Amino acid sequence: MKIVIRRFLISARMGLLLVTVPACLALTVPTMGHASALEKVGEGAAVGFDIAVLRTLGSLRLIVGAAALIPATMITTLTLPFNRDPGQYREVADTLVVGPANYVFRRPLGEDFAGE
After folding, report:
1. What is d(CA 11, CA 21) in angstroms, rounded to the nearest whole number?
2. What is the model's pTM?
3. Burial bucket for residue 93 (CB in 10 Å: 0-12, 13-18, 19+)
4. In angstroms, rounded to a whole number, what is the distance separating the alpha carbons of residues 89 and 74?
5. What residues have CB less than 8 Å from 65, skipping those under 6 apart?
6. DSSP 8-state code for residue 111
């Protein structure tokens, strides 16, 4: 009787082992493939944040900068007889309009959030 029980336990362990190992492998192999899917979800979140928040704020900055460029141009024109620096207007335009326009329209989606 002991031999029968012992053989049954050995065969049960082998059966459990034969079921458990493939099941573990079946569970781990798909998760290895999902690592790239998780990265894509992270990229999607970055792109969504970029479009919804950063591009919107950059557009507002562009509009305010374009509106501020008009008085800045007048001030620059009035100071032209005293200050003969022709690059002064270009510097003001780069700060108020060109920089925000590059940040909104030329920067890749979801990348380079600092705009550098």
Report:
1. 15
2. 0.59
3. middle
4. 10
5. 95, 96, 97, 99, 100
6. S
- Do 115 and 103 meet the contact criterion of CB atoms below 8 Å apart? yes
Q: What is the pLDDT of residue 49?
A: 86
36-44's contacts with Cβ under 8 Å and 24+ in sequence apart are 43/110
C-alpha atoms less than 13 angstroms from C-alpha of 27 in its C-beta half-sphere: 6
Give the per-residue pLDDT at 7: 66
Contact 101, 62 (CB under 8 A): yes
Q: Answer for the pair 89, 75: CB distance below 8 angstroms, yes or no.
A: no
The predicted-structure confidence for 74-96, as pLDDT tens digits, reads as follows 888 888 777 777 788 888 899 99
Q: Name the one residue in this structure whose structure tokens are 């979800």.
A: 41
